[in-house]
Fold these 3 entries.
Entry 1:
Amino acid sequence: MTTTSRYRAAARMITAIGVVSLVAACAGNGGGAPAGGGTPAGGGYPEQNITFVVPFSAGGPTDTVTRMIAEPMAAKLGGKIVVQNVEGAGGTVGAGEVARAEPTGYTVLMHHIGMSTAPALYQNLGYKPLESFDMVGLVTEVPMTIVARKDFEPKTLQELVTYVKANAGKVTLANAGIGAASHLCGLLFQTAAGVKLQEVPYEGTGPALTDLVGGQVDFMCDQTTNTSGQIAAGEVKAYAVTTPERVKSLPDLPTTTEAGLPKLQVSVWHGLYVPKGTPPDVVQKLTEALKTALADQKVIDQMAKLGTAPVPAENATPQAHRAKLEEQLGTWAKVIADAGVKAS
């Protein structure tokens, strides 16, 4: 079985597990709807199932990270966590649902860097990142990789830059949709390389990577959590990792600085959010559970295999999370304005 086949099978399995968990959760609630609002959080929190909303497709990088931490967090909280995928519009559909949910602590959002880019991309967003949510804590920062179909002509990152400049009208740059991490990284690549390319948006990272492996598109920039398997199996050609240091799981892959494109530096940070007004004691319990999960050796090992690691404990806090979001909102507002990109 190829790595792509294993990826698809894993995604189907993860989705199936999510469905089974959802059914079990509903049964535990007497057959009612899954947790997500209604019952106020009290001193006995959690008193019902907690829904973790992932605003992207099942089997994708953010979904994978969420499912890694859900089990140890649930064990610490003494309850059940149901992972629900609510995809669409670069993560804004799921984020909007959580922003409008009752602030009881039973609806939690896992989002990535897209939380900081959405205000610059979407004119009618429907929520404000700093005003519509309370932060629970940062989870991880995932490096990005620049990968291409395995028979793509350029052999190094410098050769890639030279090639795309000479063939800008023909080269295709895939991404998982406007506002997705792969789209943002692609924007930075074009800025750093001084070129404008033909972008091919997909509805999710899975389809984009599948077409890359199949040779339907030329190259893309995506998270190590999604590309490590394909790189290791030789199903794609890898040029660089977009962080200051090399990734332990991909030791032979140079950094963008080493490869001659130092202006391309980006990682995809993830964080947990709850609706604004969630009781502070509930937020504290979620933060404590997050810290426990990030210290879990199984989680550490799983993340290492995907080229990432949990954030330090001091960053898994509401304060560090808010500071990160504030800084990133300013950074990406300028990048996106300079690129002249807007989403409907």
Entry 2:
Amino acid sequence: MEYLDFELPIKELEEQLDKCELIGKESNVDVSESCKNIEKKLIKTKKDIYKNLTAWQRVQLSRHPNRPYTLDYICAMTGDTFMELHGDRTVKDDKAMVGGLGKIGDQSYMFIGQQKGFNTKTRQYRNFGMSNPEGYRKALRLMKMAEKFGIPVVTLLDTPGAYPGLEAEERGQGEAIARNILEMTRLKTPIITVVIGEGASGGALGIGVGDKVYMMENTWYSVISPESCSSILWRSWEYKEQAAEALKLTAEDMKKQKLIDAIISEPLGGAHHDRETAFKEVEKTIVNAYDELKKLSTEELVKNRMEKYTNMGVFKD
């Protein structure tokens, strides 16, 4: 397990507990009472740290290398029913954007999301979760397929942003994202969106328009990353913590501003500490959301979605 800078007190206590248990195994000394005291202190320290996280610390948790990614969630929720679909039928298959059909229970869903890598080789293969225009066009193709067959769409957001390279701009990155936003607002099938990690800029919004939008507890959703914001305002990345606070990018902030519908709770310490519980929470949220949305007619669904987004940012005196 890798530890973040603010998790070092937890690391020290866990190491003490391991040593204490090792002494008990290798000698005749009774260390059970000492181990219990360390365990109590460890639990208290964890609660104190994780219940008082700053915005920047939540950003750090959303990027934790052990945190589950899109395909982890999809495979856990759908088992062996998931069938990945490839290609945008124009350029190529974007490995940073994954999608396909899968079942939760007896209900089929079209799953779409950004996929990051878990080591150097897979990170390069997945382009660090940064999609090219063909990735967004693949996502739109799959959404249109879902619409045709009356299948609900589930999008899982986890990206540091759309790929900003020259070749992406040459192939119409901005147009591809704008087209997805337009088409998603009027898609005639339910869309359920969950931010499972980083939700950065248009890269996330390109598959982020939903009837129901949820954020996991230790995720963020913003027009810009704290580092980029800091570099623009202060010409340095040193002020990223202040930028994170000012951006109001946490799940709690987004809920207060009525930009998301609800927050999905995570196990203590983050989704990577208890993956199975995190998977079950997301699955339960998706099932409950669809049970609510399937009662609406197509006209009501599109109308409500349009109103949801046109009302954002509107203030009444």
Entry 3:
Amino acid sequence: MTTTFTDETRDRAREIIARYPADRSRSALLPLLHLVQAEEGYVSPAGVAFCAEVLGLNKAQVGAVATFYTMYKRKPTGDFLVSVCTNTMCNVLGGQEVYDTLSEHLGVGHDETTGDGTITLEHAECLAACDYGPVMTVNYDFFDGVDPSTAVGVVDELRAGGRPMPTRGARLCTLKEMAVQLAGFADERDGAVADGDPGEPTLRGLRLAQEHGVSVPGFDPNTPIRSKAEADKAAAEAKAKAEAAKPAPVEASAAPVKGGDGASAPTPGNAGAGEPAPAAAASGSTAPDVKAPDDKSPQVRTAETRQPDAGTAVPDAPGTRVPTDGTAAEPRDARSAEAVGVAANAPAGDGKPAGDEAGAQERNLTEAKAGTDADGVGPADANETGAQK
């Protein structure tokens, strides 16, 4: 059954796409997936096709993203997604007991929904609130420091039509209402936005910093954020200042420098044709300057070092400068090895992997049905016999 999305959803989709540059429209895929989830309660095949249509993508590209992130649900989900953290910290504090109690109380397991379509239960690897553990979330709003009894109380209130207040944040909304917000649209419900009180663990670090006078050196919270034009101007001024601070280059003296025997020594300005200038004039070293062995790019040089027939290649061909420990391999050796490998590995057919024999397959199936192998060994001895073979 194909879902036809409402005109409001299509208008919102166009608004989402308009937030991005014309040549970057596929960046709108994440909020668009939340948008179709807001209408259907999950990302259906029709939702994947819709996103592909409006973005000019194929369904495989959209599906690859939708299956990567756990916030995109691939089957119908309840009005309230209850996630219980069972990772290390929360588990030590009793998170697994909370999850097990809810699973038994609701009669559902991980990623399953109650019969009335109200609650979908899932265990989460981490909810990023270790200092409040054990924690659970309802549509991503936190309930901190829960235990089995308080968790059961929350889900019972939800099934009765209530909206329990999270520990931090505004009052709860349904999963579809949450998906609208994640798509980038404001929630217009009364009380949808509220200032929650910060928890004590959150404030602990701030209070310790205040008690001990810890702060970022030179930090001014009122510092304005510069525009791009202002930042570019400041960078150009800093570059010009750095260029002006560089010392002027030292010019070579016109007078020849006398050597130890009274003869004139060559200088950078009067070195003869084909005669390199002394290295000391440039670096202060007495070692002569040596030109690099070749001027090839690192990519070409890397490719040449992988040439197997370097020892017999023509001059200046790829592989002529390969460092080897001993004599390079002859081309005929490489060809012989390749021929042996091809002969030992027949090409794979359409019906079976390379190397399998139809006779062996049929024999194995026959032996499996008979409950014994070719040597008369029963199933109990199959593992040991197979290991010996």
